């Protein structure tokens, strides 16, 4: 089963590649404080359709390069201008 995640496009300056940030919140194991964290994924976007600020859905895939291991499924929401 391949993972499906939802995140925000942080950068779309590369050709056919997006940098997607997935925000998460968790409790610190020792101090118990709620901490915000993020995971950065490099995503393959064949048609260069997503832009910076869009909310996208991505799926795990085979490695396409040293860092790129995700594919774009769809754009959930376009950025409001």
What structural keywords apply?
single chain, mainly beta, five-stranded mixed barrel, 81 residues, OB fold (Dihydrolipoamide Acetyltransferase, E2P)
Describe this entry's structure for a reader.
- The chain has 81 residues and is mainly beta.
- The protein has a single domain (4-77), classed as OB fold (Dihydrolipoamide Acetyltransferase, E2P), CATH 2.40.50.
- It is built from no helices and 5 strands.
- The protein has strands at residues 4-11, 17-27, 34-44, 55-60, 68-77.
- It has a 5-stranded mixed barrel.
- A hairpin with a 6-residue loop joins β2 (17-27) and β3 (34-44).
- The chain starts with a strand and ends with a strand.
- The model has no long low-confidence stretch (mean pLDDT 96).
Would you spell out the secondary-structure blueprint of this structure?
Layout: E1 4-11, E2 17-27, E3 34-44, E4 55-60, E5 68-77
InterPro entries: NA-bd_OB-fold (IPR012340), Ribosomal_uS17 (IPR000266), Ribosomal_uS17_bact/chlr (IPR019984)
Keywords: Ribonucleoprotein, Ribosomal protein, RNA-binding, rRNA-binding
GO biological process, one term: translation
């Amino acid at each position: 089963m391949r993972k499906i995640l939802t995140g925000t496009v942080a950068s779309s300056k590369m050709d056919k590649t997006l940098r997607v940030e997935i925000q998460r919140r968790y409790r610190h194991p020792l101090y118990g404080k709620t901490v915000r964290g993020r995971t950065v994924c490099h995503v393959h976007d064949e048609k260069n359709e997503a832009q910076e600020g869009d909310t996208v859905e991505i799926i795990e895939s085979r490695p396409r390069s040293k860092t790129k291991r995700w594919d774009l499924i769809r754009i959930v929401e376009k950025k409001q201008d």
